User: What shape does this take?
Amino acid sequence: AADGTRTFRLTAQEGTTRFLDGIETPTWGFDGDLLGPTLRASRGEQVAVEVRNELPEPTSVHWHGMHLPAAMDGGPHQPVDPGEVWRPTWRVDQPAATLWYHPHPHGRTEEHVYRGLAGFFLLDDPAAPDVGLPHAYGVDDVPVVVQDRNLDDDGTLDLDGGEVGVLGSLVTANGVHGGHLTVTTERVRLRLLNGSTGRTYAFGFTDDRTFLQVASDGGLLPSPVEATRVRLSPGERAEIVVTMTPGETVRLRSFRPDLGRVAAGFAMGANDEFDVLELRAADALAASPEVADVLTTLEPLREADADVTRTFSVAGREINGRRMDMSRIDETVEVGATEIWEVRNDDAVPHNLHVHDVQLRVLDIDGGAPPAALGGPKDTVYLEPRRTYRLIMRFEDYTDPAVPYMVHCHLLLHEDEGLMAQFVVV
Ligand code: C2O
Ligand code: CU
Assistant: This one.
């Protein structure tokens, strides 16, 4: 736009989706029947969004992974009533990354995401050097949101779940079950998002080929990490680069995820395997650049620079023994502070932890160095049972003593049932 603001419009609405042949399933979407458009903006740009709610109940839209003022964050304190419009605006100021957006209404997040409301929000950084990553959107740079659902006999969404909410057997990539992607280049970059409400995946390929993980939640890893599996819990992202040979077919699959020391009786889908997306290489593939050995230099976040250490015990539906209370501020952070959050999963079941506003780093896990795949900017961290994660983060720019940010489990049933706390930055 002429005033330099990039404007988006999103309308949350009811629709129907054909997940299975001949069956129309009622779903919700942004500007359509399911999911939503990919939003894209560059570092330095001012973004403005018009969020319209045409659903029969209040919702909200949260910009997951975005550094922005608390009043623009789209959490439970920014509800959008039916028929209303919400107009957040902020300036993008963070590295290139695969972010996403989804509803965050108080106590109703699981259902709103499960019904289909979610979309990608990609950030670019025009000043970043070219490190050989494929970047033709939809051609060799493809966002893939993976979700699981269950359908009742009449084709409607089954909302009943267990300890982590619904674990579905109908797994979709970008809303499609049993879909494929035609690959026309030697290398393809998949921006994987676990958009499920409760399921953790371990993605790999049916022939166990090695791929490169190049980015995590908040942007590039310092160097590509060679891997055959990438574990993603709900809300987490990984960008991977896969090399293909002409004419071949291989499937992206979710293998049995290693969930850590989970108590017997809480399998949490640990035995489930699913094909997610078939990659079909064309008979001739266009050459792709080599991925560079060094992708980025991360700003150091050093333990010695931390001003404050906070401890969080996660168990049941509580953080530090308390359930979410919309009227209670749990933590007060000083702007500019570097903080260590020592988070322990004191439970026998899996959780994860998502912190709004920041991209954090994993300092250590039970005192040991994190794996290389966790060496980049993160906003959501899987918490294996009975382990302690030390996370380091810096809170910059935005203060608001009256409007809190959220920190919570991204197993959305847990969030809805109280595993969430509020912090303000002052
Ligand atoms: Cu992805 Cu607080 O949410
Ligand atoms: Cu949880």
